[in-house]
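Q: Sequence in, structure out?
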Amino acid sequence: QYLVEDMMNNSKIERLKVIQEIWVRVCNEHMEEYTKAFAVSRRDFTKYISLFVELLAKELKLQVIGEYYSLDFVLYKEEDLVPYEGKTWNQRLGNWLRHIRVVLEHENSLDSSSGGYQEFSHLMLTTADAKVLVGYGEKYDSYDLYAYDYQSLMKNLDYSPDPILFIGEYFPTISQHGLIFESYIIAANKILKYIDIDDNWVEMKEVV
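A: Exactly. Output:
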């Protein structure tokens, strides 16, 4: 298991690599649940994905809140909670956070009119130690184009946005020995793609 203190001491990109490794592994370890969830309907898949978010949080020794201020999932430590009592308030309904360790958005349809763009831009504006977008697209044979497209949102800004982990899902089949994902770490100045056969991250060529 990974200790959150160890992960958070890493660079932003190294944190995302750790999260990617855990995500792919726990999904493969629970392939039957993953396949069943995918088969129900794309619209309902987000509520099933919570199982894998819980498993990710358990590995990182973090807790989870779903649907937190329009974010699908946020992972946090107990110490990140706003105290229930202060001099000017006494709030005991729900949880408020003052620090987000990991924020994860899941998009069932990256190809919809706003889908992937909406979620990616939302992550760019969110303050968190690590940011993740997991989604499913149907238009193209690879998620490379999505990665380049999302990176374009980081260009020509007056600030340097945090890198974001993007994991593209493929519909699972019974014959598979392992689930297929394409994973990218997207930053304004580069995109890293995980090459499964080499167990390595490589920098993608810049598109002119």
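The mean pLDDT is 86.
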